[in-house]
């Protein structure tokens, strides 16, 4: 058995009061870790084509002194409910289409009728716990029971069909920044602020940047004063997309003759401060951005092209074909006058990056955590990595037959350093066919505890800890 177990479905929903714990949990660790990701790729008679398309499942790990509780539940999204009722896919996903007629594509492609299969991340927005994906309708859930409350409907008139599942939230105010892409004959990227008001989730657009062929952008960066968009040459022609009959992913075109552009917008005024052009590359994930010495510094995980998207079709994943490329941690420096350059911060491959966001989102920092792999072998990520971005040095955690997920940093109360805290990661152990929650000391990057789940947890994407 190998890592492909992580792409097999989890049929049941469970609620366990206490998992067996090995080691000693920190006495200060409280609260809940929520994880989000696909739970199944079969939809009645249909089959999802891409890792990103699977039906959303939430996982909850609760910390109660020396006890860890666990629960999981499928998100009752419109997509999930349609599959249960009809036995087939009802809404288009990233790389899967329900074979609609040309009439239905023309009447729905630019309207906000989405399946809201929110399988990517978890956040707290406007006082609500929500699951997010790249369509702009979050799905609210109950943090205690994981029961789905429903799609959050906006009544603010903001149009768009592509958004980032990685909003940036101010830890002091709860206000959030995000982006949304409006597809039409005159497409644009919109940057908006969402105030932390539980009674009225509204998006306030602060800037709009025109785009003739909108790029696929999964995340973005913020600094103290700016929002930073990286516009890659992986684009969609909105008019052609209406007519192809293909899902969104298969309308993406890689145009390496175009540059990647960084657009920088002032958070308060909404003014476009400037745009910087660099060589063509693609990235899913920004790591961090900050201002220093008159420059804007942007750290992200860069790929040479869009092959990584092809690598994650289910047929490829289940064939155990080696991935074609690993991400490279790059630092771009955007200087006044439109000039820019980049450097590679480490030789270690990295993905699903996390930092100490509470203290360092938008500020200078030292450490990034992620999943990694042997730099000389093309294989599924099998280790956790901590990178010191100041000198490129790395610490790793690895165990034979184990495949960890995204490492979530939880700061220790009154911690004295940036890495004072723990790392939480859900690890697939293929030797026994189950998963466990791993707890590492973030400073030394050594194991302090693990809590084993009695079944496997399919590979997911992102999560959040709430104290």
Short précis:
By secondary structure, this protein is mainly beta.
Helix and strand topology:
Layout: E1 15-16, E2 21-23, E3 31-40, E4 42-43, E5 46-47, E6 55-64, E7 67-74, H1 78-86, H2 102-108, E8 121-125, E9 128-132, E10 139-141, E11 148-151, E12 162-163, E13 168-169, E14 176-182, E15 188-194, E16 204-210, E17 221-222, E18 226-231, E19 234-235, H3 238-244, E20 253-254, E21 260-266, E22 272-278, E23 282-292, E24 295-303, H4 307-311, H5 314-318, E25 328-334, E26 340-344, E27 351-354, H6 357-360, E28 367-372, E29 383-388, E30 394-398, E31 402-404, E32 408-411, E33 421-429, E34 434-441, E35 446-452, E36 463-466
| Biggest sheet architecture | 6 strands, antiparallel
- The CATH topology, please? Methylamine Dehydrogenase, Chain H
Q: What is Rg? A: 21 Å
Given as residue ranges, the uncertain stretches (5+ residues, pLDDT < 50) are: 101-113
CATH class: Mainly Beta
Named CATH architecture: 7 Propeller
Number of strands: 36
Instruction: Give the end-to-end Cα distance, rounded to a whole number of Å.
Output: 36 Å
| Structure annotation, total helices | 6
Oligomeric state of this protein: single chain
Total domain count: 1
Class from helix and strand fractions: mainly beta
User: What is the overall shape?
Assistant: globular
> Helical proportion?
under 10%
Strand content: 35-45%
Mean pLDDT equals 92
